[in-house]
């Protein structure tokens, strides 16, 4: 098959992934990919924010690990990305992170819908049970729309992450999707086909095929990511994701280098 780049993968610095970037590259080469991008969980202005991201002092080591993978595999393209949490009020912090290294892209992800609730955290299922799903999904997409218009990101991560544990609203969420997608189109931000959803309770790619059809209608661009937290997950379900994109009518995917975009034909 013709592969695309895999732009979403993690390192042990976030405390819940295994394998160094070199191992992810080795797996990518074995599969026949020609490029990957690392995108570990960004540090926050406070290191005690949560327990699933790198500390501020680790950012330099993260970049060093990516550079070590590049040195070990000079025949292979390894991009330096970051999965950055979008939280309103942290825009200055995100700009500060952007100024520190030669990034190829930032993935903007919404995990937090409030000061203390990261909605994809399996330890916080009790929060889901306390809230009406539509209220949570509305908040989530409001933040995701702000992330799209912030100008801080090339790519928006796992755009319907709120479905992870199958707390689906009874209401029609199409207007929430459309508002976000119009913002992504207007601000020229890509969304990723993130295959990790297939490995979660929801058993469905992020975002859903129906969501992707709307994205296509709005003219939103795409990338691909496995959200690998282990080398064995690199390129997971890419055949499915690439076929799905093609079926829906996407003709190109986006390549990023130095935060500049290129369109690559999807064939
Ligand atoms: Zn993670
Ligand atoms: Fe994420
Ligand atoms: Fe991730
Ligand atoms: Zn992710």
3D structure, described in words:
The structure is a single chain. By secondary structure, this protein is of the alpha/beta class. The chain has a single domain (12-265), classed as TIM Barrel. It has helices spanning 21-31, 59-72, 91-100, 125-130, 133-149, 174-186, 209-218, 238-248, and strands at 35-41, 77-85, 105-109, 155-156, 190-194, 222-225, 252-257, 260-265. It has a 6-stranded parallel β-sheet with strand order 1-2-3-4-5-6. The chain has a two-stranded antiparallel sheet with strand order 7-8. The longest helix is centred in the middle third of the chain and has 17 residues, at 133-149. The radius of gyration is 17 Å and the shape is globular. The model has no long low-confidence stretch (mean pLDDT 97). Bound molecules: zinc ion (ZN) (2 copies) and fe (iii) ion (FE) (2 copies). One zinc ion (ZN) binds at residues 10, 14, 16, 41, 52, 229.
Topology of helices and strands:
Elements: H1 21-31, E1 35-41, H2 59-72, E2 77-85, H3 91-100, E3 105-109, H4 125-130, H5 133-149, E4 155-156, H6 174-186, E5 190-194, H7 209-218, E6 222-225, H8 238-248, E7 252-257, E8 260-265
Parallel strand pairs: 1-2, 2-3, 3-4, 4-5, 5-6
Antiparallel strand pairs: 7-8
Helix pairs in contact: 1-2, 5-6, 6-7
The structure holds zinc ion (2 copies) and fe (iii) ion (FE) (2 copies).
One zinc ion binds at residues 10, 14, 16, 41, 52, 229.
